[in-house]
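Feature request, filed as a ticket because there's no other form

It would be nice if the structure record came with a short human-readable summary line next to the tokens. Right now we just get the raw output. Example of a typical job, pasted below so the devs can see what we mean:
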Amino acid sequence: MNKVGFFQGLAVLLLWSLSACGGDPSSSGETAPGTMRTLGPEETGISFVNQLSDNLDRNIIEYLYYYNGGGVAVGDINNDGLEDLFFTANEQPDKLYLNKGNLQFEDITAQAGILADDAWSTGVAMVDVNNDGYLDIHVCKVGVGVMPAAHNLLYLNQQDGTFKESSKDLGLNIQAFSTQACFLDYDLDGDLDLYLLNHNVHSVRSYGSIKKRKETDPLAGDRFFENRVNEAEGQFVDVTASTGIYSSPLGYGLAISAADLNGDGYTDIYIGNDFHENDYIYLNNGDKTFREVIKDWTDHTTQFSMGVDIADLNNDQLPDIFSTDMLPFDEEIYLKSGGEDTDQLKRIKADLGYEEQYARNHLQLNSGKAYFTDLALQTRTFATDWSWGVLLQDFDNNGWKDIFITNGIVKRPNDLDYINYLNSEAIAKLDEDDPERTRKLIEKLPSEKLHNILFLQQSELEFTNLESSRVGTPTFSNGVAYADLDKDGYLEAVVNNINEPAQILTWKDRAAGGNYLSLHLKNSAGTTALGTKVYVYAGGRTLYQELQVVKGYQSSVSHRLHFGLGDVSQIDSVRIIWPGQGTQVLSELSVNQHLEVERPAADALIAAGGNPVEAQAFEVFPLQHEENPYEDYEKEKLMPERLSQEGPAVLYEDLNADGIKDLLIGGAHGYPMRLLQGQADGSFQNLEVDAFTRDAGYEDASFAVIDFDADGDLDIYAVSGGGAAKELEKALEDRLYLNNGNMDFRRVALSLPHTNGSVVAVADFNKDGYEDLFVGARSIPGSYGLSPYSFILTNKQGRGVDIAYKQRFGMVTDAKWADFDQDDDLDLIICGDWMPVTILENDGEGALEYLPEEANGPALTGFWTKLAVADVNQDGQLDIFAGNLGTNSLMQASPEAPVKLYLGDFDENGFVDPLVFFQYYDRYVPLGSKDKLLSQLPGLKKDFVSYSKYAEVASFEALLPEGQKFLVEEKQAEILQSMLFLSTADGGYEAQPLPAQAQWGTIQDLWWEEDARQLYYISSNAELMAVHGNSQSARGGVLGDYDAAASAFKTVQSLDLPRGVQARALLPVSGRQLLLITNNDYPYLLSSR
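Raw output as currently delivered:
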């Protein structure tokens, strides 16, 4: 391999994919005043150090994963009831420590027969591979490339305190780029099979399409081995080819964990891949094969996946997934670090077949319906910097699992100033084989010790903030495992560090913790207990865990299941589902005990039952919406959101007065709107309308029916939009189509608005007998952030329209007419981006006025998307539902720390530049990388030569000291939550956030069903441009049974929606069915409400 080819390949990729990626408050060297106390070698007897000393032959340039560190394994090797520890080293011998009790350990490496070699060890697992009742030890090696020749090791427990290295005898002496071995019983035959996770090291410049997954790579490709140790073969047998797993050169496997994800009783596997290759979810088919479903089960994953754990985080008895990445939380490091793909690179990778990735942590919440929803942004667990292992367990015993994450990187290769140095003249003039070149490249790399993180879960998915979650001292930590090493009822975390002793972190405040139950599951029949599921019923809730030990990063955890119970003093029952689905029930258990549980005989078990999760099938409506190929953010590089893919418009009304509603679906530029006539049997018949075909050059943004000429039938007003045309151009002209009563529509030649429109709302607000229109505009194309003109048009008795109001309300997204003040005339409510929900009061004579400030209206600014009006609490006054961006976003906002938008022609080139600042963690940062900013404002290059200089920017004034004189307008968004604005007796409104589930995405549509008194909503997230966003496909829900006393909905249900689509509208159609309208996809007919 080219000496620095792989390393420079990474540099090329990072330069291409620059992002606004955090010195770090956790690198101060101080011990964090957190919840755990760090025990060093003088207290524990553990003197192990994973010491690395790079040289010209072995270093991060020769082997990119040089600083990835080693692992930890926990297990009771001598069955004395105390769990022992094994540490792997990269350039030193591995070490085995015997637990002597009271957190005291003895190094027994030599007498136990553990090899004293210095071959490059990586992952380690303690499992019983031969079902003799004693734990064995498997160690992975990188034994190829620049590393010393070596193969993976398997130490068989001799039951006398010693081990015999038996990898060759058992067929596991694999020589490859091995990361970790995950042991699982994939065929439920009672013994442990092995998934061997390997990683590649080739240049990222040479990656190809996903077709390469069909290739095999003997050194980097993953492998699967079936355990036939106690059968005729007497060893593990390579069955990779028949299982359906990938064993390709694309794999950069760093993370692996196993669990039954779909509830069918078979163990599934999650693989975390580094770089461009997607993570894998392998669902076990139950016939010794797997199917890979990451595309179907997730919207996106971590990009540089490093660690993973699977556990039930929110106590809904479903396994969730947390994976780690390397997004900094410190603002300075964030702004000078690379990692996120550019928009261009995202499109290239999509064309090559790769799924969406983001370079940040992911918290994938299991829906129980064959898909996950990433909530790392909403829970603020998305950025923990260069993170490795992650463990999901209850460290404070309050009944909610916490998140422990190890951190630190000895040499940070994604520092953007360093990447510029790689391409500098100082390096270019040196010969590639010159040792001085290598020395300089290594010395110049930044180094950053970091605190490890323990996010304590205080209530459902509510975690402690990052600052208070730091634990221990700053380190370069990698592998981590948990266990109750001293059997005091609290878990310890055992951490493998680079260049300093391994540490044990123990819970500090015993008095503040809760009760617990510890279970040791034993299978006396000579078969494995891994894969056993346990449900603990106590205190009115159910806690769930599955026994799997390979977790986090290169590590394996305790074989005992630990349940924190909070203040519960009595356990009602424990239900244990053993592998094979046999169930055992234990009743009325006391708390605070370590319980040994042996699997009873088969005839004493109960059949488990249960329904495996299957993805729901949906009826596809055969009418595809196709977007025109236009990306507005390519012209406006600093706009924070994409506005070019917000359609299609849709209308569901009875257009021919036959008592059956018809359907009109709009088209993007170049595609005509399509009219479907509703039939008595619930079907639709496509109608060709010449006027619609002729107007295919318009982009349909919104529709409304209006009896414009008061002839008794419904005409159609079509709002035109799109960002490709300039304001006032013909392509943005609205249209009015008159109906002859039989859906034979003809366009009327009227002078109508020419804006990038968004919404039309119809009402006879001046009570002259003719319906009038509010026409809202979304933006001024080419000038994101500036408010376009919106219009109120009065109907001139069917002969034309007059402009009653022409005003720049904001970037309008929706509008409704309703009598809010109960004075028997129609008022107008408007919402949009960077503006408040705005009410215009009708004075009874057709004049509209803003609510006075003292009226306490819904004045919070946001990214408001949709409105619905209803008397929710049945007090006789109308309330307002307002959809918003949602809190599952990189940006967060509050009245005290709003998202800020500065508008002006800051480079004096005749175009508006939108500059967005938001509160990241401790301070404001600009939205977008230095390179993104300079692509629109090249004049700033002289002010920000280095990324370090840009990383200091914390305000508009710091970015542009002279910016105020060019500032045209300043806007802000104070809140991102979707809200219920509840009317009050004094004519004001009380703001109540909708339930947490309704905040998971950006609301695209919502409506109130009066008969059932329920709110239906759908959401889809459009990612923020070129930052660590959250592109999320359709989600939806139903909120019902509003309790006025508690100011909350009692029922919160999710809607079953198709996967991988961008939802735009949800319509109640014939019967009790729903029609989901999507962008650039087909509509879907959903089952009855």
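Something like this underneath would help us a lot:
The CA atoms of residues 427 and 440 lie 8 Å apart.
The chain is about 10% helix and 35% strand.
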